[in-house]
Design goal:
One of its GO terms (biological process) is response to amino acid. InterPro entries: ArsR-like_HTH, AsnC-type_HTH_dom, Dimeric_a/b-barrel, Tscrpt_reg_AsnC-like, Tscrpt_reg_AsnC/Lrp_C, WH-like_DNA-bd_sf, WH_DNA-bd_sf. GO terms for molecular function: sequence-specific DNA binding. Keywords: DNA-binding, Transcription, Transcription regulation. This is Lrp/AsnC family transcriptional regulator. This protein has five helices and four strands, in the order H-H-H-E-H-E-E-H-E. It is of the alpha+beta class. The protein has two domains: 42 residues, Orthogonal Bundle (Arc Repressor Mutant, subunit A); 82 residues, Alpha-Beta Plaits, CATH 3.30.70.920. It has a four-stranded antiparallel β-sheet with strand order 2-3-1-4. The longest helix has 13 residues. The protein is elongated and about 55 Å long.
Length: 152
């Protein structure tokens, strides 16, 4: 599917506030409510819009301690990679897991209450996963930018 200028503008509007009604969106896009509705449905069918979510203020739910954990596996076999990935997906504290190039194999974004909770996570959950060779943790000092909006 090729996105036209209106599709791109619609996607930015929805990413900024997905609770806007089709009427509100139609006024911003200078389209009919039906046309906006049809475009949204098409973007959903095509898998361009994958989901709608609520973004939560992590500090208000006592999950404000963000850790970026770099991880090396002991070997790079398909079996080890697959096993690690299937296990790390199950860890609720891990918000993101990226297979990367460079000195480490994976970067995890971990969200917990505080240093003590991270230590507990590291000792009881993360290091109990098979095939981990080493880890290096970096702690967020402050969040300079955090956006979920993909621009065009």
């Amino acid at each position: 599917m090729t996105l036209d200028a209106i599709d791109k503008k619609l996607l930015v509007l929805l990413q900024t506030d997905s609770k806007k009604t089709t009427k509100e969106l139609s006024l911003k896009l200078d389209l009919s409510v039906t046309a906006v509705y049809e475009r949204i449905k098409k973007l959903e069918r095509e898998g361009i819009i994958k989901n709608y979510v609520a973004l939560v203020d992590k500090s208000k739910i006592e999950k404000g301690f963000v850790v970026f954990c770099h991880l090396k596996l002991i070997q790079h076999t398909k079996e080890f990679l697959t096993k690690f990935e299937s296990e790390v997906i199950k860890l609720n504290e891990v918000l993101e897991c990226h297979h990367v190039s460079g000195d480490y194999d994976y970067i995890l974004k971990v969200l917990v209450k505080d240093m003590e909770a991270y230590r507990e996570f590291l000792v009881t959950k993360l290091t109990s996963l098979q095939h981990i060779g080493s880890t290096q943790s970096m702690f967020m000092i402050s969040e300079v930018k955090n956006s979920t909006v993909i621009s065009f």
